[in-house]
Amino acid sequence: MKRLSLSTLSEVPHTSRPRIDPRGIGVGIVHLGLGAFHRAHQADFTEEAMARAGGDWGICGVSPRSPRVVDAVGPQDGLYSLLVRGPDGSRARVLTPLRGWLVAPNDPDAVVARISDPTIRIVTLTVSEKGYRHDPATGRLRRDDPEVVADVAGRPPRTVVGLLVRGLQRRMTTSGAPIAVLCCDNLPHNGATLATVVDDFVEMLPDGDELREWMKSSVSFPSCMVDRIVPATTARDRDEVAALLGLRDEAVVVAEPFRQWVIEDEFPAGRPAWEHAGALLVSDVRSYELAKLRMLNGAHSLLGYLGALAGIDTIAETMSRDHFAVAAGNLMTQDAAKSFEPPPSLDLAAYAEDLLERFASPGLHYRTLQVASDGSQKLPQRLLGTIRDRRAAGALPRWAVLAVAGWMRWVWTPVTDVGTPRVLDDPMASRLEALVSAVDDAADVVARLLGVREIFGDDLVGDALLRAALRDDLARLAADGADAAVRAIVAEMAR
């Protein structure tokens, strides 16, 4: 079967062809983190914005680590298909906004040069929480990180923050053109957090004062909230797209029909007309961000850890067991929704119902293991903010506690409840496993893990009521297994 590319684009069925002709699109955005989520979300919005309102907003995608995605899209002239799976079936459409691609480790100077190019007016990022090399508990750059130290010392940059700062530094000394840097990762106050990480890096530079002053007037760091469920692509997905397009596509991305993007409108050099693609441009994204992080991502993590412990492969399969679905819904409505002030237009009860329906969609095959990865980086914004705010209000958030206990059990046990090996995919894996590997008491595990200040800060370890609740849930998960423990807890709380 022939492969998708510009030369075969005319063979794509009309209903699956791109919304715009990729030939002649100028590049106006550099994106760091060329993974599936960006290609299924921001790139989709950007192509539609260009189709509706024009503009040279093609994207130069940068892979910060692996050449895998570039190796897939390069031979296809940047084209790839978005496979949308919903209750009414699947549909595929070819997307074209990717007009350049780089692998940062192969040529970091090319990345720096792209960011410094005055035709680039926006840098966007989806590098996952761990990509910022920050302390999740404080939001500050880990200044003792060896890779950060090496980048500051002047080697060709390898970290995301190093690439970004060196690009901004060169931009300042060449054109001086203003630019927006838009974080699209699941971080609290993600724009402000990225600005802090960048400022911390600049402060470490011996000649950073001039750059800091220039950035104050020429670089913005708007926040945004992104939402679309994008599971990892499988061979089955590629086969389905081949059948729909009549062409082979090695860069398929899969997503649910739903998508949302809320963006702070602070772009000193202009931006695509994302609002014409359905994005919401606002002055303050905070309440939308909290709703998504604490309700969607918090409940997703509960399902990911507890489902993985129970030996369940996907989120949808986990949702098919009523007690897990009830626990996820209760976390949203009884804990998370009471921990923040929602946007005026958002009905949190209806939002929770919509999320449960999305989680239960069987066509997405979103694996519990994918959700359960990188917990040390995800817990602070997904669950610990809810716990802190509810504890400050005098309440014990029962379901958020259960979710954190699920993470602790995932760290503690070498096998799932069905006897399969547990692989801890986390940047702090070796440290976390060393803390609890020889421990056989739930209370001791809780105390040791709560003491990891990079995750839990300095306050939660001293909360006796929280510590006791985590101990009880962790002991039940260890003794009974996640499936039986959650079933019993749900039944008890319903009485």
Could you give the distance between the termini?
59 Å
Counting H and I runs of at least 4 residues, what is the number of helices? 21
Arithmetic mean pLDDT: 97
Globally, the shape reads: globular
| Name of the CATH architecture of the largest domain | 3-Layer(aba) Sandwich
What would you note in describing this structure?
The chain is an alpha/beta fold and 495 residues long. It folds into two domains: 6-282, Rossmann fold; 286-494, N-(1-d-carboxylethyl)-l-norvaline Dehydrogenase, domain 2 (Orthogonal Bundle), CATH 1.10.1040. It contains 21 helices and twelve strands. The chain has a six-stranded parallel β-sheet, sandwiched between helices. The protein has a three-stranded mixed β-sheet with strand order 4-3-10, with helices on both faces. It has a three-stranded mixed β-sheet with strand order 9-11-12, covered by helices on one side. Helix 18 crosses helix 20 (464-480). The model has no long low-confidence stretch (mean pLDDT 97).
Task: Provide tags for this entry.
single chain; 495 residues; alpha/beta; Rossmann fold; N-(1-d-carboxylethyl)-l-norvaline Dehydrogenase, domain 2; 2 domains; six-stranded parallel sheet; three-stranded mixed sheet; 21 helices; 47% helix
